[in-house]
Amino acid sequence: MFQRTLLRASRQAAVRPAAFAPIRQQVASTRAAAPAIRWYSDAPAAKEAEAAEKKEDAPKDESAQLKEQVEKKDKEIVERQDKYLRSVADFRNLQERTARETKAAKDFAIQRFARDLVESVDNLDRALSTVAPEKLQGDNQDLSSLHEGVKMTDGILINTLKKHGLERFDPSATSEKFDPNVHEAVFMAPQPGKEDGTVFFTQQKGFYLNGRVLRPAKVGVVKNA
Predict the structure, then answer these.
(1) Where on the tree of life does the source sit, at the highest rank (predicted)?
(2) Number of domains in the chain
(3) Structural domain of 158
């Protein structure tokens, strides 16, 4: 009995594969006939689009950077050029100022010496003015010779000083107008026939040193009113 049961089970197992064989063949034929379908992801396409956008933006960013660098360099060039021009101007001003100071130092180096020297010139001038003209016309030849020698010494000294920029001036000799920058008014007095403010008397002659007043002349000024 048990053997029969096993025999039946084995027969059924052998029949079942044959029964399902057409189904398997049908599935296999369906798979062979159906076209192959491939599925693609959208991620690569999005990445490619993003990369393309980056490539388009890259030249724009690069040109903007280059433009910014050029503008920066232009600004630096302008600033450096301005600094250069300022330096050149400062250097030229320094040269001119140094030249002026050197010339002034050279021209007025003897100023203190000249101030002391004009006192000796004044003494010679006073000595000449103390001798009256009528005494020189007399028979006193010694006085005339002495006066002539002092006068020559005074003239030589004045010419020598003039070569070094020291000049003597007498405002009353030319009836100059009173100038407080050049003259020093000692007194004022009426002088008929002369205009007010005119120098009519020189008490002490003045001196110029290279065009600058070394010592103003002491004078008397006309005041009729």
Answers:
(1) Eukaryota
(2) 1
(3) 108-222
